[in-house]
Amino acid sequence: MKEDKTCPACGGKLSLFYLKQTCPHCGVNLLTYNAEARLEQDAQKAAQEVEALWNRLRRLDKAHLIEKHYQKKGKPFPWEAAEEKPAETDE
Ligand SMILES: [Zn+2]
């Protein structure tokens, strides 16, 4: 399997056998740059997962509250009415 090594900062090509810490094109420290980028990605991924989870919980909670409200009033649930509509309003 051929793997092209490129600088994460400038995208310049690096030899597979290029073992120095700094990029010959832009001089960025490859070791710390990669580590920082990874840490940032991990943090972003974790934050996104937490946010997605919260959004899901919020939606569930909302759905539950709306359900209660509609049950009290004896009305059909809004999502049931929405499901019967054709999906052509989705643009
Ligand atoms: Zn570079």
Structure write-up:
This protein has 91 residues and is mainly alpha-helical. The chain has one domain. The protein has 2 helices and 2 strands. The protein has a two-stranded antiparallel sheet. It binds zinc ion. Zinc ion is lined by residues 7, 9-10, 12, 23, 25-26, 28.
Output the keywords.
rod-shaped, mainly alpha, 56% helix, 4% strand, binds zinc ion
Q: Average pLDDT value?
A: 80
| Uncertain regions spanning at least 5 consecutive residues | none
Structural class: mainly alpha
> What letter string, H or E per element, gives the SSE order?
EEHH
Gyration radius from CA atoms, angstroms: 25 Å
Q: Strand tally, please?
A: 2
For the biggest β-sheet, the strand order reads 1-2
Largest sheet: 2 strands, antiparallel
SS strand fraction: under 5%
Overview in brief:
This protein is mainly alpha-helical. 56% of the residues lie in helices and 4% in strands.
